[in-house]
Specification:
Distance between the termini: 56 Å
Number of helices: 7
Order of helices and strands: EHEHEHEHHEHH
Strand order of the largest sheet: 3-2-1-4-5
Radius of gyration: 17 Å
Shape: globular
Structural class: alpha/beta
Helix content: 25-40%
Number of strands: 5
Length: 230
C-alpha cells in the first residue's frame, strides 16, 4: 500500500431490530470506525413497526447497506411474539417469559454470520443485554461465547484462520447506561420501537415487559422519554 494511502475501514454486520438496544449498538459500531452492514430479520413477529423503525435508523446512521431477511419463526410457534393467540403479559412474571422466541438469536446470528463471510466482515455486533432484560437464555455471555466458537468451527473463514468476533457491547450495561451511551452518540430514540405489541404506527402499549424496562431506563438515566404511547 502506498505511504499516503489509508487502510480500508473494517467491516461489521450489525443486527438491527429497530429497537433501542440495536440502534445503540449500531451507533457504537460506527463510532469505533466500522463500515456497517445492517441486518434486520422479519421472523413472523406480531407487528412490522420495528422493521419500519430499522429502515429509518439505518438511513439516519449511514450504514453501507441494510437488508431485511425472512425466517418463519411463526411457523415454529411457542412464543407470544409470533402467535397472536397468546397474550402478551402486561405485568411482571417469574421465570423465562412467554415472549421468549425459541432459537431466535441463534438463527439471527447465523444469518449475520453468513452475510459477514460474504462481505468480508470479521465482526458481528448484536444488542443482547444480560442486566436489564427479560431473562432470555440467548442474551447471556455464555451464549455469545458459545456462538463465537461455533462461528470459528463452522465457516470457511474460521477454518482458514480468520475467525469472527461476536461483539455484544451492551451485555453488562444497565438500560440507563445504554441510553446515556446512545444519547452521547446522537441516537434519536424517538425512531426506535421496543414494544412487544406496538401499533402499526409504532406507538407503544406502555404495559409490556419491554415497555417497562425502556421507561425505567429513561427515568434512571434522567433523560426525557421520547416514546410515543398509545
Amino acid at each position: 500500500m502506498p505511504a499516503n494511502a489509508t487502510a480500508p475501514p473494517q467491516r461489521a454486520v450489525v443486527l438491527l431490530s429497530g429497537g433501542l438496544d440495536s440502534a445503540t449498538v449500531l451507533a457504537l459500531a460506527r463510532a469505533r470506525g466500522f463500515e456497517c452492514y445492517a441486518l434486520s430479520v422479519h421472523y413472523g413477529q406480531r407487528h412490522s413497526a420495528e422493521l419500519a423503525a430499522a429502515r429509518q435508523i439505518a438511513a439516519a446512521l449511514g450504514v453501507r447497506e441494510h437488508r431485511i431477511m425472512g425466517v418463519d419463526l411463526a411457523g415454529i410457534g411457542g412464543s407470544a411474539l409470533t402467535d397472536p393467540s397468546m397474550a402478551i403479559p402486561e405485568s411482571p412474571t417469574t421465570g423465562i417469559p412467554i415472549t421468549y422466541v425459541p432459537a431466535r438469536n441463534t438463527l439471527m446470528l447465523s444469518l449475520a454470520l453468513g452475510w459477514a463471510e460474504v462481505v468480508g466482515a470479521a465482526d458481528i455486533f448484536v444488542g443482547v443485554n444480560a442486566v436489564d432484560y427479560s431473562g432470555y437464555p440467548d442474551c447471556r455471555p455464555e451464549f455469545i461465547a458459545a456462538f463465537e466458537n461455533l462461528a470459528r468451527l463452522a465457516t470457511k473463514a474460521g477454518v482458514e484462520g480468520a475467525p469472527f468476533k461476536i461483539q455484544a457491547p451492551l451485555i453488562d450495561m444497565s438500560k440507563a447506561d445504554i441510553i446515556r451511551a446512545g444519547t452521547h452518540l446522537g441516537v434519536d430514540y424517538s425512531m426506535t420501537v421496543s414494544c412487544y405489541q406496538a401499533a402499526s404506527d409504532g406507538a407503544a402499549c406502555g404495559k409490556c415487559d419491554s415497555c417497562r424496562l425502556r421507561a425505567a431506563g429513561f427515568a434512571a438515566a434522567r433523560i426525557p422519554d421520547p416514546t410515543r404511547y398509545r
